[in-house]
Amino acid sequence: MEELRSFAKIFLTGIYENLERIIFGSGRYTDIELRNAILSGTIKLPKTVIEELCIGCEGCANVCPTKAIEMIPIEPIKITENYVKDKIPKINAEKCVYCLYCHDFCPVFSVFNEVSPIHPRDVGEYVEIDVSKLLQKKIEISEEQINKICSLLSINLKKILGDK
Ligand code: SF4
Ligand code: SF4
What we know:
- The structure is a single chain.
- By secondary structure, the chain is α+β, with helices and mostly antiparallel strands.
- The chain has 2 domains: 2-40, no CATH class; 51-160, no CATH class.
- It is 41% helix and 13% strand.
- It contains 8 helices and 2 strands, in the order H-H-H-E-E-H-H-H-H-H.
- The chain has a two-stranded antiparallel sheet with strand order 1-2.
- The termini are far apart.
- One iron/sulfur cluster (SF4) binds next to helix 3 and helix 5.
- It comes from Methanocaldococcus vulcanius (strain ATCC 700851 / DSM 12094 / M7) (Methanococcus vulcanius).
- Residues 45-74, 87-117 form the 4Fe-4S ferredoxin-type domain.
- One of its GO terms (molecular function) is 4 iron, 4 sulfur cluster binding.
- InterPro entries: 4Fe4S_Fe-S-bd, 4Fe4S_Fe_S_CS, Fe-S_Ferredoxin.
Protein backbone atom coordinates (compact mmCIF):
# COMPACT_ATOMS: atom_id res chain seq x y z
CA MET A 1 0.00 0.00 0.00
CA GLU A 2 2.85 2.31 0.99
CA GLU A 3 4.57 1.57 -2.35
CA LEU A 4 1.41 2.38 -4.23
CA ARG A 5 1.16 5.72 -2.42
CA SER A 6 4.78 6.59 -3.28
CA PHE A 7 4.18 5.63 -6.87
CA ALA A 8 1.06 7.81 -7.04
CA LYS A 9 3.01 10.71 -5.51
CA ILE A 10 5.81 10.40 -8.08
CA PHE A 11 3.22 10.16 -10.86
CA LEU A 12 1.31 13.25 -9.71
CA THR A 13 4.49 15.26 -9.15
CA GLY A 14 5.56 14.35 -12.69
CA ILE A 15 2.24 15.51 -14.13
CA TYR A 16 2.38 18.75 -12.15
CA GLU A 17 5.94 19.51 -13.26
CA ASN A 18 5.10 18.86 -16.88
CA LEU A 19 2.02 21.09 -16.66
CA GLU A 20 4.14 23.79 -15.06
CA ARG A 21 6.57 23.54 -17.96
CA ILE A 22 3.81 23.72 -20.56
CA ILE A 23 1.63 26.40 -18.97
CA PHE A 24 4.13 28.61 -17.17
CA GLY A 25 7.24 27.86 -19.19
CA SER A 26 9.17 26.86 -16.09
CA GLY A 27 12.43 25.04 -16.68
CA ARG A 28 12.87 26.78 -20.01
CA TYR A 29 14.80 29.68 -18.65
CA THR A 30 18.12 28.06 -17.92
CA ASP A 31 19.44 28.52 -21.42
CA ILE A 32 18.09 32.05 -21.69
CA GLU A 33 19.65 33.00 -18.36
CA LEU A 34 22.94 31.48 -19.42
CA ARG A 35 22.77 33.24 -22.77
CA ASN A 36 22.03 36.61 -21.12
CA ALA A 37 24.82 36.08 -18.60
CA ILE A 38 27.27 35.36 -21.42
CA LEU A 39 26.11 38.36 -23.43
CA SER A 40 26.20 40.73 -20.46
CA GLY A 41 29.68 39.55 -19.53
CA THR A 42 28.51 38.39 -16.07
CA ILE A 43 30.07 35.02 -16.68
CA LYS A 44 33.05 34.19 -18.78
CA LEU A 45 32.29 32.50 -22.08
CA PRO A 46 33.08 28.82 -21.58
CA LYS A 47 35.56 27.05 -23.75
CA THR A 48 33.48 25.55 -26.53
CA VAL A 49 35.97 23.96 -28.90
CA ILE A 50 38.81 21.56 -28.16
CA GLU A 51 41.00 22.60 -31.04
CA GLU A 52 43.36 19.63 -30.83
CA LEU A 53 40.48 17.22 -31.16
CA CYS A 54 38.77 18.94 -34.07
CA ILE A 55 39.53 17.72 -37.59
CA GLY A 56 38.30 20.96 -39.16
CA CYS A 57 35.72 19.25 -41.37
CA GLU A 58 33.24 22.15 -41.15
CA GLY A 59 30.35 19.77 -40.46
CA CYS A 60 29.26 21.76 -37.39
CA ALA A 61 29.19 25.01 -39.36
CA ASN A 62 27.22 23.39 -42.19
CA VAL A 63 24.62 21.92 -39.89
CA CYS A 64 24.11 24.94 -37.61
CA PRO A 65 20.60 26.31 -38.26
CA THR A 66 21.45 29.86 -37.20
CA LYS A 67 24.84 30.13 -38.90
CA ALA A 68 26.40 30.71 -35.49
CA ILE A 69 29.61 28.89 -36.39
CA GLU A 70 32.40 30.49 -38.31
CA MET A 71 35.40 28.49 -39.49
CA ILE A 72 38.62 30.29 -38.60
CA PRO A 73 41.73 29.64 -40.74
CA ILE A 74 44.73 28.24 -38.86
CA GLU A 75 48.29 27.32 -39.73
CA PRO A 76 47.81 24.06 -41.70
CA ILE A 77 48.39 20.85 -39.71
CA LYS A 78 48.96 17.61 -41.57
CA ILE A 79 46.81 14.98 -39.90
CA THR A 80 47.09 12.07 -42.33
CA GLU A 81 48.71 11.44 -45.72
CA ASN A 82 45.48 12.56 -47.37
CA TYR A 83 44.39 15.31 -45.09
CA VAL A 84 45.52 18.68 -43.76
CA LYS A 85 43.49 20.56 -41.15
CA ASP A 86 43.45 24.27 -41.95
CA LYS A 87 40.48 25.69 -40.01
CA ILE A 88 38.65 25.33 -36.72
CA PRO A 89 35.17 26.45 -35.64
CA LYS A 90 34.24 29.37 -33.46
CA ILE A 91 30.74 29.77 -31.99
CA ASN A 92 29.04 33.15 -31.91
CA ALA A 93 27.13 33.06 -28.59
CA GLU A 94 24.72 35.74 -29.79
CA LYS A 95 23.42 33.53 -32.56
CA CYS A 96 23.51 30.17 -30.77
CA VAL A 97 20.15 28.64 -29.79
CA TYR A 98 21.68 25.61 -28.01
CA CYS A 99 20.13 23.06 -30.33
CA LEU A 100 23.27 20.88 -30.04
CA TYR A 101 23.23 19.94 -33.74
CA CYS A 102 26.91 20.91 -33.99
CA HIS A 103 27.76 18.50 -31.19
CA ASP A 104 25.60 15.65 -32.43
CA PHE A 105 26.69 15.79 -36.07
CA CYS A 106 30.40 16.23 -35.38
CA PRO A 107 32.06 13.14 -36.90
CA VAL A 108 34.46 12.82 -33.98
CA PHE A 109 31.39 12.15 -31.85
CA SER A 110 28.95 10.62 -34.33
CA VAL A 111 31.33 8.45 -36.36
CA PHE A 112 34.13 7.67 -33.92
CA ASN A 113 32.13 7.77 -30.71
CA GLU A 114 34.65 10.01 -28.94
CA VAL A 115 34.07 13.18 -26.92
CA SER A 116 32.91 15.84 -29.37
CA PRO A 117 35.36 18.71 -29.81
CA ILE A 118 32.48 21.19 -30.01
CA HIS A 119 29.83 22.07 -27.49
CA PRO A 120 27.80 25.27 -27.29
CA ARG A 121 28.27 25.49 -23.51
CA ASP A 122 31.47 23.92 -22.41
CA VAL A 123 33.55 21.06 -23.71
CA GLY A 124 34.54 20.24 -20.14
CA GLU A 125 37.71 18.42 -19.32
CA TYR A 126 40.47 18.29 -21.85
CA VAL A 127 40.79 14.83 -23.36
CA GLU A 128 43.90 13.66 -25.07
CA ILE A 129 43.14 11.99 -28.36
CA ASP A 130 45.47 11.63 -31.31
CA VAL A 131 43.28 12.66 -34.26
CA SER A 132 45.50 10.99 -36.86
CA LYS A 133 45.04 7.70 -35.00
CA LEU A 134 41.35 8.46 -34.62
CA LEU A 135 40.94 8.64 -38.38
CA GLN A 136 42.36 5.14 -38.68
CA LYS A 137 39.94 3.74 -36.15
CA LYS A 138 37.47 1.13 -37.33
CA ILE A 139 34.00 2.63 -37.57
CA GLU A 140 30.85 0.80 -36.64
CA ILE A 141 27.87 2.68 -37.94
CA SER A 142 25.57 1.94 -40.85
CA GLU A 143 26.53 2.88 -44.40
CA GLU A 144 23.40 5.02 -44.61
CA GLN A 145 24.31 6.96 -41.48
CA ILE A 146 27.90 7.56 -42.54
CA ASN A 147 26.70 8.73 -45.97
CA LYS A 148 24.38 11.21 -44.28
CA ILE A 149 27.11 12.55 -42.02
CA CYS A 150 29.64 12.69 -44.88
CA SER A 151 27.22 14.74 -46.98
CA LEU A 152 27.37 17.46 -44.30
CA LEU A 153 31.12 17.76 -44.20
CA SER A 154 33.27 19.98 -46.36
CA ILE A 155 35.94 17.30 -46.54
CA ASN A 156 35.87 13.87 -48.10
CA LEU A 157 35.84 11.84 -44.91
CA LYS A 158 35.27 8.63 -46.83
CA LYS A 159 38.44 9.20 -48.80
CA ILE A 160 40.40 9.89 -45.62
CA LEU A 161 38.97 6.74 -44.08
CA GLY A 162 40.00 4.77 -47.17
CA ASP A 163 36.40 4.19 -48.32
CA LYS A 164 35.57 2.09 -45.24
S1 SF4 B 1 24.08 24.58 -30.59
FE1 SF4 B 1 24.41 26.68 -31.31
S2 SF4 B 1 26.28 26.60 -32.51
FE2 SF4 B 1 25.57 24.48 -32.26
S3 SF4 B 1 24.33 24.07 -34.08
FE3 SF4 B 1 22.92 24.79 -32.51
S4 SF4 B 1 22.79 27.01 -32.81
FE4 SF4 B 1 24.58 26.29 -33.93
S1 SF4 C 1 32.18 19.04 -36.90
FE1 SF4 C 1 33.61 18.51 -35.24
S2 SF4 C 1 35.51 17.96 -36.24
FE2 SF4 C 1 34.25 19.02 -37.75
S3 SF4 C 1 34.91 21.16 -37.63
FE3 SF4 C 1 33.17 20.93 -36.27
S4 SF4 C 1 34.06 20.45 -34.27
FE4 SF4 C 1 35.63 20.14 -35.77
